[in-house]
Amino acid sequence: MNRMPVYFLSHGGGPWPYVDDMRQQFAKTEQEFIALPGRLPAKPEAILVITGHWEEKDFTVSTAERPPMVYDYYGFPEHTYHIKYPAPGSLKLASRVLALLSNAGIAAKEDARRGFDHGTFVPITLMYPNADVPVVMLSMKSNYDPHEHIRVGQALTPLRDEGILIIGSGLTYHNMRGFGRDESTPIADAFENYLSEAVKQNNAEVRNDMLAKWETAPGARLAHPHEDHLIPLMVIAGAAGEDKGRSMFVDHVMKVPMATYEFGYGK
């Protein structure tokens, strides 16, 4: 089996595919997410998602066989609180993730109740609308230590040779007070340029060091006052191993860039 690529997806705002005017704003993202399965060497056996909407004191793996939904957004139309994405979980993958982390000396717990937040179901609904690929989630650790999250990704790298697609879901810019403001554009552009430069480094150690030092980038704390939407990229960089990354596409919504990065195989 060919090795799977790994992706950091900028998942956009709230349940946007289910809100007509937002869907128009995210037309490029929708097109790219729908097309993403065509970039893979095969249909995944399962998907592992590290989402910017789930953090715990310890790394935690979802073990629900039928994950529920988590409507972790506010002020959207009533119908968006009834969205269903009935993909199954995978105890096999969850157990494998727990074993890989344990073998790497990384403590992890399991959660049989955790459901799909919008950082998970929004991109995967577009990628696999038939909900026929099992999905497991891995939380961030709430200390947000970049090195620790890179190490988690490194521990998970073997999954790529086992038919598992690993996705980090967040945003390259996430300042709720900055969205839609003209003054946010140069800040967000400068920060995304730094991330893009890091991602495309030929040397994985240089790349990971640049990402770990993200706070030194131009506008870093203005782009991410709280780095929950950035940390999934650290896990993906770790899982990428020696594979070089690239910016797969950049959408521009609410006056800021929202970039998606690909590491490894891609058509």
Keywords for this structure?
267 residues; alpha/beta; two-stranded parallel sheet; 9 helices; 8 strands
Please characterize this protein's 3D structure:
By secondary structure, the protein is of the alpha/beta class. 33% of the residues lie in helices and 21% in strands. A hairpin with a 2-residue loop joins β7 and β8 (256-263). The longest helix is centred in the last third of the chain and has 16 residues, at 184-199. The radius of gyration is 17 Å and the shape is globular. The mean pLDDT is 97.
Give a summary of the structure in a few sentences.
The chain has 267 residues and is of the alpha/beta class. The protein has nine helices and eight strands.
Write the layout of secondary structure elements.
Elements: E1 6-10, H1 20-25, H2 27-35, E2 46-56, E3 59-62, H3 91-103, E4 108-111, H4 118-127, E5 135-141, H5 146-156, E6 164-170, H6 184-199, H7 204-212, H8 220-223, H9 231-239, E7 245-253, E8 256-263
Parallel strand pairs: 1-6, 2-5, 2-6, 3-4
Antiparallel strand pairs: 1-8, 7-8
Helix pairs in contact: 2-4, 5-9, 6-7, 7-9
- Please report the number of helical segments: 9
Given as residue ranges, the uncertain stretches (5+ residues, pLDDT < 50) are none
Based on CA inertia axes, which overall geometry fits? globular
CA-atom Rg in angstroms: 17 Å
